[in-house]
Amino acid sequence: MSLKNVMVAQSGGPTVAINASLAGVIRGVMASDQYETVYGSVNGILGILNNHLLNLTEIMNENPAYLDRLETTPAMYLGSCRHKLPDYLDDDSSYVFIFKQFELYNVGAFFYIGGNDSMDTVLKLSEYGKKIGSDVRIIGIPKTIDNDLCETDHTPGFGSAAKYIASSVLEIAHDTFIYAVKSVTIIEIMGRDAGWLTAAAALARNGYNSAPHLIYLPEVPFDTDDFLLDVKRMLFERNNVIIAVSEGIRDASGNYISASEKSVDTFGHSQLSGAGKTLEFLVKEKLGVKVRSIEVNVLQRCAAHLASKTDLMESVELGKKAVALSEEGVTASMVTMNRVSDDPYTIEYGYAEIKNIANEAKSVPTEWINAAGNDVTQELIDYLTPLIQGESNVTYENGLPVYMDVSHLTKHQ
């Protein structure tokens, strides 16, 4: 029986761990007796549509050491996209072309590494493949710093972003505590509908540091009057108040406090910006104390020098598991992680049907948020702590980290 090939792509927002999953796919194929070559689709699904593919097996065979470097390189080696496939019942032209490409390159499995919107693509391709009787196995490999994919304990990329958030909050606390004046520092953290990343700020607390003193997540309604009372109370107890807020905090009516109704992305999500700045102006006006806001934006998803070793190791294993599952005939699914124990931290790798994951979102359980809605519980701390353990093995040269050459992403721009 002749060997098949595989195709892999990356999509959505970057993380420091998504290339580790790509490396895992390559390693899985190198050890496979069913697959021969890995083709990488540049810029997500668009690479297939534009016939912009890289022979990753050839690249890695020229220098196997590249795989180790790939595992610690941030963002996406293959590039990304925000392309939403149409419903094939309305327009199947893209699907016809994609599956012709699979046939042309003798593809037996397609792996899409991404978050919620990427799993929508996996679902659509799986449904179309079933309709036409294709034997191409289509499997999603999770990644997102938002940690909001269902059916899995957590998502690759989240642990490293959480480690960066907690480290940054601790460092901000050190910077803030040097002044013996009343001040408020508001740290806005990514999280449109789920507050996992913002909750990770609580990991900065230690024996001498109680910051962040207040935490607000989008899972519970945000009330500005209650917020001001919380800040007043904290200012009475201490000079410096540090607050972590999700970008997606919203009022009891479900309105984002910083969203533009007219600005939405390709998938229909409101474009958010300015929750921290909005609250900065509110505190300045109502409380009259020194206040600043800090927006932690892309830094948390590209700081490979501060990646979690646990996160990277799990990401590699998920890539390898996806290959193994496809060899078993699994399709229309996403690779998952199931937690067996917190102490010692233990997980098992499995899979779940993509129909139960695409276009769904996992929120922070309300029982892991305190009754006042301004902090998190110990249960959430216990859940988060194992995910940030260990340090990445980044190579340095001339004082700077050395990453994979990604000039193939820029030479046509």
From TrEMBL:
Binding locations of Mg(2+): 116
Active site: 146 (proton acceptor)
Claim: Cytoplasm is one of the keywords in the record: yes
EC assignment: 2.7.1.90
Binding of substrate, residues: 144-146, 190-192, 247
Binding-site positions, diphosphate: 13
InterPro entries registered for this protein in UniProt: ATP_PFK, PFKA, Phosphofructokinase_dom, PKF_sf, PPi-PFK
GO CC terms in record: cytoplasm
Keyword Magnesium tagged: yes
GO molecular function: 6-phosphofructokinase activity; diphosphate-fructose-6-phosphate 1-phosphotransferase activity; metal ion binding
Any one GO biological process: fructose 6-phosphate metabolic process
Pathway annotation from the record: Carbohydrate degradation; glycolysis; D-glyceraldehyde 3-phosphate and glycerone phosphate from D-glucose: step 3/4
Activity regulation behaviour: Non-allosteric.
Domain Phosphofructokinase: 5-324
Cofactors demanded by this protein: Mg(2+)
Catalytic activity: beta-D-fructose 6-phosphate + diphosphate = beta-D-fructose 1,6-bisphosphate + phosphate + H(+)
Record keywords: Cytoplasm, Glycolysis, Kinase, Magnesium, Metal-binding, Transferase
Localisation: Cytoplasm
Family indicated by similarity: Belongs to the phosphofructokinase type A (PFKA) family. PPi-dependent PFK group II subfamily. Clade 'B2' sub-subfamily.
NCBIfam families for this protein: PRK14072.1
Quaternary context: Homodimer.
Protein's job: Catalyzes the phosphorylation of D-fructose 6-phosphate, the first committing step of glycolysis. Uses inorganic phosphate (PPi) as phosphoryl donor instead of ATP like common ATP-dependent phosphofructokinases (ATP-PFKs), which renders the reaction reversible, and can thus function both in glycolysis and gluconeogenesis. Consistently, PPi-PFK can replace the enzymes of both the forward (ATP-PFK) and reverse (fructose-bisphosphatase (FBPase)) reactions.
Protein's recorded name: Pyrophosphate--fructose 6-phosphate 1-phosphotransferase
